[in-house]
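call fold(seq) -> tokens
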Amino acid sequence: MMSFDTYQFAKPSPSKAELEQSKKDFTALLRNNLAVLQQYAQKNQKPMALAETGFETIPDPTWWTQTLYASVQDFDICYVLIWRNHGLKKEENQMHYYAPYKGHPSSSDFKNFYALPNVYFGKKTKALNLYK
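ret:
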């Protein structure tokens, strides 16, 4: 297995312009890294993955389909792992999460991402016997 980690970053409560720049930077970096990784993975006959990714607090309501999926859809990735949801970080008095919760502004886009025909979560992988 060959993989790497790439995260999107932005300051808290970014403006629309800052969010767009962050998206542009993340997409360019991720696609470049995936292109390099795919070359080496194919050359060495290894599966490739995006070992860790995410956007803390997910301030972009369409991040799942318009940023993450749009960035990875052209590559031969065996999996993408979204970083954890820690919950409240008491020492910082702020929430730390990378996946949406019910009612989060990106939750409907996450459902759209989940429903894409070539995106596989546990139930779909089990039904297809991918790990047999």
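The beta strands are 2-8, 48-55, 77-82, 87-89, 94-96.
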